Amino acid sequence: MAAPILVQRGAFRLRQLIIFTLIVVAGTGGELCVSRAMKGVGEARSLRPSDIVKVILRALRVPWMWLGVGMMATAFFALLAALSIFSVSFVVPVTALSYVAGAFGSAAFLGERVTTQRWLGVLLVAIGVALVCLGSH
Question: For residues 112 and 86, what is the distance between their CA atoms, to the nearest angstrom?
């Protein structure tokens, strides 16, 4: 009887890993893609509706925007799945790994400079996530 239980736990852990990886990777990847698109599009010259509409229409013609929106939608549906399976007190802290992925992604993908102070903050977030995960066993 112990073997089927171990198989069930393994399958549960695999599903957990897949869901949270989707949330973090697709969510952060989507934000990075949208950021890349918007850096190319530029900002609105004013808050007049016509200027805002022009920026939106330019953004909709950038493939990075569509890739980003698709990835963010994937992350959203994975988050819904996680919330239907796990407690919020577990889901929300674990999804904070997006901050870690965002720092690495912004440096690698967008070429942004991440300060030492921000890296220390990322380290604190990672430690917090590890504590939440260890406390869930």
Answer: 34
